[in-house]
């Protein structure tokens, strides 16, 4: 299974936050936010919860699981 984060950038922008601001609110580097938005990094459950809280939304709104095709 692969984590899809395609909604993170949209939700972050709708909240009026920059990548740097979201990084500061969640205690990670801006590069971590960039990699997460691109789908190159799957955040831990703890980080996913912190991101969702910072954006005043749910983890499910931002992240989803993509089934791998057989």
Automatic annotation (TrEMBL):
It comes from the Bacteria. SUPFAM superfamilies: lambda repressor-like DNA-binding domains. SMART domains: HTH_XRE. The keyword DNA-binding applies. Pfam families: HTH_3. Coiled coil: none annotated. PROSITE patterns: HTH_CROC1. InterPro entries: Cro/C1-type_HTH, Lambda_DNA-bd_dom_sf. Residues 8-62 form the HTH cro/C1-type domain. Keywords: DNA-binding. PANTHER family: DNA-BIDING PHAGE PROTEIN (PTHR46558:SF4), TRACRIPTIONAL REGULATORY PROTEIN-RELATED-RELATED (PTHR46558). This is Transcriptional regulator. It comes from Brevibacterium sediminis.
């Amino acid at each position: 299974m692969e984590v899809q984060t395609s909604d993170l950038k949209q939700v972050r922008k709708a909240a009026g936050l920059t990548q740097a601001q979201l990084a500061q609110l969640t205690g990670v580097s801006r590069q971590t936010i960039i990699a997460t938005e691109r789908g190159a990094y799957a955040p831990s459950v703890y980080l996913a919860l912190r991101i969702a809280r910072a954006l005043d939304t749910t983890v499910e709104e931002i992240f989803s699981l993509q089934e791998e095709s057989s």
